[in-house]
Amino acid sequence: MKLLDIILGAIAVGSALAAPAGDKPTPTTTKTSKRASKFQFVGVNQSGAEFGNKDLPGQLGKHYTWPVQSTIDTLIGKGFNTFRVPFMMERLVPNKLTGSVNTTYSQGLESIIRYITSKGAYAVVDPHNFGRYYDKVITDVDGFRAWWATTAKLFASNDHVIFDTNNEYHDMDQNLVFRLNQAAIDAIRSVGATSQYIFVEGNSWSGAWTWTSSGNGASLLGLTDPQDKLVYEMHQYLDTDGSGTSTNCVSFTIGAERLRDATAWLKANGKKAVLGETAGGSNAQCIKALTGMLSYMQSNSDVWTGWLWWGGGPWWGDYIYGMEPPSGTAYKGVLPSLTPYI
Ligand SMILES: *[C@@H]1O[C@H](CO)[C@@H](O)[C@H](O)[C@H]1NC(C)=O
Ligand SMILES: CC(=O)N[C@H]1CO[C@H](CO)[C@@H](O)[C@@H]1O
């Protein structure tokens, strides 16, 4: 296994050196290319600032990093218009939920968000915390409200920002997940951030395939937004346990199958959703499962607003789902097949 990793690593480095000429970053002045799909949001998660999440606050360049501007340009050139930026709640507001921002980290976050939105794309502000703060489930709903008021204030005047209440709540009381989401919505609106979309996530890692069986459907249906701009963010991987840790996909048809139940819920209740994380391995079976899923979403685009790939970012190396230009595994092997859905 070790030896295989080393060989794969060497291949990754080799192919990075031999990047095809067509993969040069798009000049920053290039306008968003014409897109094939009618999805509102098509994008890529841009990892880095949430890395080293056990090292808090952590050091820039050692434990975490920021997404790369030229990558944003390149992916916009491919038609993408949405970038989800995961980061750590504790790095932005250290020590206590009701505290104030760490200006060093905040400037890094604000800078990449500003860059993305200056290109006309959406930037999703994604506290990648799984409903936890310093590794403990957040039960202080008022504290969470305060954290969100502090954070939303930084972006209140930028209408291309999208607020994502939290990444993948899991193993939590369902009513707590409801109350945290509602507190975030209320806090965001209370500081004058009234034009932005808000992505709300569910329990059970916000899985689309378990949206109703987990209780998310019944519980989160009650969320309210005075601006009526809520989008349910669901995640879906296509490997056996749905964890997004394998290059294998269950079958050619698994993508569409895993979204059926959630789609019925969305239609029955007149709600909209975005697939905030999805991926599959760079192989024929996964590509067919992914394009089948995206095609199913397109034919249900009254409720599915779009999708975001997991993941891009400068530190993924030869990661199985890497979407980082020029040599990411998925960038090279999967993206060419996804063009009709961008
Ligand atoms: C603020 O953030 C910087 C950069 O991540 C870090 O070096 C510093 O220790 C942080 N300060 C606190 C109080 O967390
Ligand atoms: C499927 C996947 O890659 N999930 C990732 C979500 O984000 C955390 C933090 O970056 C990773 O540790 C997970 O692997």
From TrEMBL:
<dbReference type="Pfam" id="PF00150">
    <property type="entry name" value="Cellulase"/>
</dbReference>
<dbReference type="GO" id="GO:0008810">
    <property type="term" value="F:cellulase activity"/>
</dbReference>
<dbReference type="GO" id="GO:0009251">
    <property type="term" value="P:glucan catabolic process"/>
</dbReference>
<dbReference type="InterPro" id="IPR017853">
    <property type="entry name" value="GH"/>
</dbReference>
<keyword id="KW-0378">Hydrolase</keyword>
<feature type="signal peptide">
    <location>
        <begin position="1"/>
        <end position="18"/>
    </location>
</feature>
<keyword id="KW-0732">Signal</keyword>
<protein>
    <recommendedName>
        <fullName>cellulase</fullName>
        <ecNumber>3.2.1.4</ecNumber>
    </recommendedName>
</protein>
<dbReference type="InterPro" id="IPR001547">
    <property type="entry name" value="Glyco_hydro_5"/>
</dbReference>
<feature type="domain" description="Glycoside hydrolase family 5">
    <location>
        <begin position="44"/>
        <end position="311"/>
    </location>
</feature>
<comment type="similarity">
    <text>Belongs to the glycosyl hydrolase 5 (cellulase A) family.</text>
</comment>
<keyword id="KW-0326">Glycosidase</keyword>
